[in-house]
Automatic annotation (TrEMBL):
UniProt KW DNA repair keyword: no
Domain of life: Eukaryota
Ranges for domain Protein kinase: 27-316
Example GO molecular function: ATP binding
Name of the protein described by the UniProt record: Protein kinase domain-containing protein
Cleaved signal peptide residues: none
Record's keyword terms, sorted: ATP-binding, Kinase, Nucleotide-binding, Serine/threonine-protein kinase, Transferase
Sequence ranges assigned to domain MSP in this UniProt record: 333-456
Gene3D superfamilies: Immunoglobulins (2.60.40.10), Phosphorylase Kinase, domain 1 (3.30.200.20), Transferase(Phosphotransferase) domain 1 (1.10.510.10)
Amino acid sequence: MDRKLQHTSMVPIDLTYKKLEEITNNFSEDHKVGSGGYGLVYKGVLDSGTEIAIKKLHQMVGLDDVQFKKEFNNLMKLQHKNIIKLVGYCYEIRHKYVKVHGEHVLARMEERALCFEYLQRGSLDKHLSDESCGLDWHTRYKIIKGICEGLDYLHNGSKDHIYHLDLKPANILLDENIMPKISDFGLSRLFGTTQTHTTKNFIGTPGYMPPEYIDKRQISKKFDVFSLGVLIIQIMAGPLGHSKSAEMLPQKFIEHVQEQWKKTLQATSGDTTLQEADSLAVKTCIEIALRCVEADRVKRPTIREIIDKLNEIETVRKSLIGQRSECNLLERRLAIDPLELRFPFEVDRDVSCVLQLTNRSGDFVAFTAQANQSKYWTVPERGIMPPWSKRYVIATLKAQVNMPDSMQCNDLLHVQSTRVTDDDGDSATVDGLAEDFEKKMMVGNADEAWLPIVYVALPPPRSP
């Protein structure tokens, strides 16, 4: 049974308090997975087998009712892959005997809980580390991009703009594929305009609040942008990254972060072209982050400008990879056509495209063709080609339930090849060649190409 939830427009289910007690063993410590300012979070499993996270609000007279309704109403408006999905809720009023001043009285109890999809990897703050250990650069970039896309949806996804007002690592959850999802909308506000607003109440988390809010209680979209900047710095430079950035001149800090990542990229990849592309992405991301934490909110970019800049990074990276592939093509024994895979995307259908490999040498050539994401498969995934031969590889995208937000994806097909012979220098058996191939791959003695993947939307059917 597939126990993972998909993002659909399904209405959250009404769960009884008794059912929540049952699936959490009466809200036992064994089921507790987290806590916050307004409640505790427990893990439970529904009868369908779906794992959920249950946020049980504290009993706080007056405040909890406002908090519950605010978060519930905001979450009901949101449907995005980078926003936590509301699965169900509980809102019950009951009476319970409690002892007050030595006497038993029948007290009114208002039980409120919000139930979300359960994300296996927990919150981002548990994964933050410096650049020399922990998550690699591509994973960190994926997290940054996902958070930005989720925030763009909040700010610009509808005529009513939602400001989160509490973006921080503890409120970014990660699924099993390390896709980030923005959570905890208890402090978020819904505004019908993009104007700046003023509040009397002090909200948010110290360290993530912008100066104009601390000094004048002013709220705008740039509040979230400031918090995002702090987040990006911490993702790239570790939990203490923002403190370091405050102690250094901006250009010095950019150079420091870039230098630290340069060492890590060199240690994990022998491909100088990829190192150059990733180093450029590191520099651009830290520049974006420092612009986000500008004291003057006018100088901060909008989330849409940030998304555009990240898309530029990906375009440049694909261009560098493509240039490297074209420059090296004549030097290789194995020719690859095309150098970009284009999938004719259709919802709920497997779609495929064909890659032609040509062995332009008098040697036996072994190859592998694998995507960087598990949603693709290739047939064949590996093989051995005789001299002066052609081979076709079919790459297939597994059926996807939703149309992607952008037809330009970040996925790549990795093709590696090498000349293989037996000890005598002659053509050998398939098993012998494969064994030789694996040895060469392990020591990096092989050609490789990274082919960008894009989706192509099919035209709508014509009316008869």
